[in-house]
Amino acid sequence: MLGAAAARALAFVTARSTGPPLDRAVRVTLNFHPERVVPGLVDGGAYVSQFVTGTSSGGLTAFEGGDRWRWESRMFGGAYDSAAAHERPVYGGLNFRLSPYGASPRFGSSHLRLKPDVPRRTTFCYPDSVTEPEHFGVADRMALIALALADQRDPLDDYVEAHVHGGVSVETDAEALVLDPSHRGTPVEEAALRLPCPVEWHPGFHLHVDELRRHPDFRGPEFVALGERIAVDGVLTPKVVGDNAGRHHPQDLKKVWHLLARFGRRTP
């Protein structure tokens, strides 16, 4: 059962949505960096928003009056303005391209793939809510895929944003946790195997420094240089980036991750 705030938010977005029903083969995915998130999934059993955690792979503005609070107030008609942090939606993407990496890998190498009934309580926008978009969708009215397919955006920005209302339980809502193969045999895999959902592996992110050096203009030459310094045997992987948390500024590592996510995808 949706709470009152979630029900109001869903109704508000539904009234502003158009288009055909969503194909049930398309899944909502929640991308994240697993070394940060998987332990919390094991301990708490749920995926929660940055209003609860105070952390994010994007901007840190989830507080009353902050940008994230303001964007949600606008998107959901003020439904969550007085809601508790744990009542707010969690963010992911609509994997309309059926990518093995999830809908929005700019936010992390791993993802939860949610079950086919979850879109019934999910709202969508295009493009990302940071842009204060004008186009919205729900499962029964989904014009956003056509908009995204007609657009020309960088692959890291090529996603339809999803907002799952009513909480995400790993046990009841997750179809699988999909990890990068660099985490095989690590504490991330050990923790993941304790979750009440299957664990799967995508083809992997793998970027040699020779290729990294070809892209100084993508996020800046200083982040190429940082990537070169932290690479192991000349290679960047999600595990390498994660192992450097705490050794470098998180926003700098985020830019290195963007380089890896953009140019290091292995084809299936």
From TrEMBL:
InterPro entries recorded: DUF3626
Source superkingdom: Bacteria
Protein name as annotated: DUF3626 domain-containing protein
Organism, scientific name: Saccharothrix longispora
